[in-house]
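Example record

One chain of 131 residues, shown exactly as stored in the release files.
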Amino acid sequence: QLQLVASGGALVQPGGSLRLSCASSGSSLDRYAIGWFRQAPGKEHEGVACISSSGISANHADSVKGRFTVSRDNAKNTVYLQTNSLKAEDTGVYYCAALFGPCSIETLTNTARTVTEFGSWGQGTQVTVSS
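Predicted structure tokens for this chain:
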């Protein structure tokens, strides 16, 4: 399983913005569709957004559509999640992971379930939205 490291989380006020980054310490990411996930306290991992290996296509969960944008720079071996208009309910630990299939909301859900049950989540980054 490709191990990825998420970074860029912080404490922000409601309405604020953060750019999260996802990187691999060794392997190249350009062959993989990558998903962003989050886990709120006491809840299961939730798929947030994903992007195809080329970056041409992306999908966002309804809960973040219009506020979050996923992108990637394969030359920098990094995937980003721009989070705007943050709300308290966006609070959680954010993770990134390679998808077990093409980028879609269904694949996000399946990947979250599979990684939780059979794999391990890489290093996440804490996002706290609070005044």
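Notes: The chain has a mean pLDDT of 95.
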